[in-house]
Design a protein that fits this description.
The chain is α/β, with parallel strands linked by helices. The protein has helices spanning 7-15, 22-32, 35-39, 43-49, 54-65, 68-78, 93-96, 129-144, 157-167, 189-198, 215-225, 240-250, 268-275, 291-299, 310-316, 335-343, 351-358, 362-374; strands at 82-85, 104-109, 118-122, 148-151, 172-175, 200-203, 229-232, 254-257, 279-280, 349-350, 378-382, 385-388. The strands form two sheets. A nine-stranded mixed beta sheet has the order 1-2-6-5-4-3-7-8-9, sandwiched between helices. The chain has a three-stranded antiparallel beta sheet with strand order 10-12-11. Helix 8 (129-144) links the parallel strand 3 (118-122) and strand 4 (148-151).
Length: 390
């Protein structure tokens, strides 16, 4: 029985013809009405249109006769990678509204749903411990509020954001500058595997595509495009994160920045953004300053938050059906621990400040801090000076 392929397949074929770029494919589909119609187009008509040059027409003719793309498409699906074209109903609505939208997306796992608030967390690969903690804590809190987190799986801020979201049982999506079957950097393989179980790994590049440097600035428009709000945690003035910010502003996305030290090169980009009008975010609750977040909250105030099913949790934690132990949240702490933990932040506080803010005696505060350190929630960064680390 002859197999019948859908519009996604024909768009896949067009997007993988050597030497024919997105702009030309878009023009052809617009003219003929569908990728299927383009694939059946008469070569003489294509020559008269003037969209393709002679060499491109030869490549087109060769590709339409060559059956290799059929086998590649079938193998790709068998190996767990889906292709969703721009004409598919499952293609993210947010991307329809950006310039130069991808004509299709390769995806392992799922695509971010349109009805969930979406936040991109981006920043430096060579980040500080402060930046890493901020990205982790923000993503962890957002996940608890059913906010999905978009990032790029890079080292540093991206990795911390993905980890924070996963630790809270949330949905996170990684947009790659290579094929979805290539984990780059390889050190993030554990994140890559866990993202696929509940969220998704996404790319506009076909499987086996190498992580060439030029692809990453290009993929950044997808990171910002999939988000309602873009948060920059740490970024130098000239960096990939700032390129993403430029694209986010062109896409009418809201931008927030985490402030940093004035003499820290990794925070220069964030501090400049704040000086030029970006909203400041120092704690997760600041997200509700954004109109996109406030609108989403208003729409969903009467709806129950849908958390993962038991099956999802089992998959996320290696198949044992039980969550791996993580740092206790404030709501699970005993009264004294809850109080002490709540007054700590990412900036060091000495014991005198903690005593004054909690109203507890010295003995109780010291014992509570010790317990929190043992549970991995608090770190003593200097003599009698403490920060929260989760």
């Amino acid at each position: 029985m002859k197999k019948i392929y859908n519009e996604d397949y024909y768009m896949y074929r067009l997007c993988n013809i050597k030497g024919i770029g997105r702009a030309s494919v878009r023009k052809l589909v617009d003219f003929f009405g569908s990728a299927y119609n383009v694939s059946k187009a008469d070569i003489n008509i294509l020559k008269k249109l003037g969209i393709l040059n002679g060499r491109q027409i030869d490549e087109f003719a060769f590709s339409m006769k060559n059956k290799d793309s059929i086998y590649k498409y079938e193998d790709m699906i068998k190996n767990g990678c889906n292709w969703i074209s721009i004409n598919n109903n499952n293609y993210p609505e947010r991307l329809h509204n950006i310039d130069d939208a991808p004509l299709g997306l390769y995806c392992r796992g799922n695509l971010p749903p349109d009805d969930r608030l979406s936040v991109a967390i981006i920043g430096s690969r060579n980040c500080s411990s402060y930046g890493r903690r901020m990205a982790y804590n923000l993503a962890e809190s957002f996940a608890a509020d059913n906010i999905q987190v978009i990032s790029g799986l890079a080292a540093g801020i991206d990795a911390a954001a993905h980890r924070g979201c996963l630790a809270s049982g949330g949905y996170t999506y990684a947009v790659l500058g290579c094929g979805t079957d290539v984990c780059y950097p390889y050190e993030n393989l554990d994140i890559y595997k866990n993202i696929i179980k509940t969220g998704g790994v996404i790319s506009e590049y076909p499987p086996n595509t190498r992580p060439d440097a030029w692809r990453f600035p290009e993929r950044n428009r997808i990171i910002s495009g999939l988000a309602d709000i873009v948060i920059v945690v740490e970024a130098a003035q000239r960096s990939g994160a700032m390129i993403t910010v430029d694209q986010a502003l062109e896409q009418n996305r809201e931008v927030m920045a985490v402030p940093g030290r004035a003499d820290d090169i990794c925070s220069q980009g964030c501090n400049e953004l704040i000086k030029t009008g970006a909203m400041v975010i120092t704690k997760p609750e600041d997200i509700w300053q954004c109109s996109a977040a406030a609108l989403w909250k208003e729409k969903n105030k009467n709806n129950k938050i849908n958390k993962h099913t038991n099956t999802d949790i089992k998959a996320l934690n290696g198949g044992n059906g039980n969550k791996k132990p993580v740092c206790p949240t404030v709501n699970l702490l005993a009264t004294e621990k809850k109080l002490v933990y709540s007054v700590l932040c990412l900036h060091p506080k000495d014991t005198d400040e903690i005593i004054n803010e909690t109203g507890l005696n010295v003995s109780t505060v010291m014992q509570t801090l010790l317990l929190l350190q043992l549970e991995g929630c608090v770190e003593e960064v200097a003599k009698n000076c403490y920060i929260r680390i989760k």
